[in-house]
Amino acid sequence: xxxxxxxxxxxxxxxxxxxxxxxxxxxxxxxxxxxxxxxxxxxxxxxxxxxxxxxxxxxxxxxxxxxxxxxxxxxxxxxxxxxxxxxxxxxxxxxxxxxxxxxxxxxxxxxxxxxxxxxxxxxxxxxxxxxxxxxxxxxxxxxxxxx
Length: 147
Hints:
Shape: rod-shaped
Oligomer: single chain
Number of strands: 0
Strand content: under 5%
Largest sheet: none
């Protein structure tokens, strides 16, 4: 599908070499043209460069200080988020089991799951029927149907 480029002959390379012997002229920027040569090579040029370097260093230092403080607050916020999630879970593990035991004991009597004695199961069944507010005749009919 794809073909490699053909290697040129030795005659073609000789012709190309003759064309590329021209050396380009040095590129001089507009800034270098506007400044005199004496200030670039002398003490004044070095002082200017040092002053610019100090200004840039101060700007970079201020940026780094701001970034560092933002990173510190992000770390603090991440720890706070972690505690907001973990503390309620720990409190739930500590305080919910006794609450569930109380609820299970209250409703276990009604459901008959907490009783191990068969007579106690019939007593809990009788207590459920009494909660329905039925006549004694209807309560007996219901007992007969469910047994």
